Amino acid sequence: MPERHPVQDFFVCDIFDAAPKGDMASMEHPVFSLSTKPNQRSRRYEHNDAWIEIKPSSDGLATIHDRDVLIFCISQLMAAINQGRQVSQSVRFRAFDLLTATNRMTNGRGYELLKAALERLAGTRITTNIISGEKEITRGFGLIESFEIVRQHRNGRMQEIEIKLSDWIFDALSSKQVLTLSRDYFRLRKAIEKRLYEIARKQCGRKPEWRISLDLLRKKCGSGSTLKEFKRLVSKVCKDDEASDHFPDYRIRLDDRGGRGRDVVIFESRGNIPAIAGSDGADRIAVRALDADIYHAARLDAPGWDVHELEKQWRIWMEMSDAKLPRNPEAAFLGFCRKWHGRRKR
Q1: Which of 28, 58, 75, 212: disulfide with 18, CB 3.0–4.6 Å?
Q2: pTM, two decimal places
């Protein structure tokens, strides 16, 4: 008998109520435009040894609102991976499901905006040396490789869409370098609010508090505003949050008492982000203490590095990435040391 139902070469997004998740690399770096108008400005962002260049197509740079499409796809794929299902770099979904999951309009205008978002995501090109997953990407690529409208209603409205994610995005979720986002992220109306939340989720994580200078925050946001205008925008977000407590997971406030050029933005955890569940079912964050003998092996795997500092970085990564507690912490730590040393050698 012939195989009547061969394995499909795409993943069908069919998981109800999948938790929103974003990739850590684009949460850390200003990949998306904050402007609601077509942004034709190329940008280059450098921080420490990492750099990233983003170039627009004729439709402009992908915006932070366009990122909702990627969050939906990543959320579906990660939920499937956690269920033990096979996933693919190509994903297929109903347009209506994406619109409702990301709190968007489901009228004709909503479908038009979704199509425009797909075109900007496919057209925006990135070149970077930022490691996503285990690969250091040094070639150009799009945020999505391609998209196809598989089915349409008779009135031309999109019904079913297929997207092929970029290697960069797929490597990140395959390595589980993603973070869970609040569902209220999709209720944030302003682009600056969404970007501030992403940065807070990545940097503050489960810590009680995280501080950053206003100027560095402007750089991380990728804002093209002057420092004075950016301060006004952030102040407005702080005042709105103080009045309504609408900012997800964190309180945000601006401390400008340090004088000119010394403004600091402070993110305080609301205590909403759950701890990582351990094998015993108890919520906990920290991995148990490592066996003393493991540090010698770590020095061999990462010669020249302070292994106690590496352990600190490993524990921070475990905490912030929502990774499950490893069954063998020593083996997991040694794997981290080898990867860390290999990355820094290149």
Answers
A1: 75
A2: 0.76
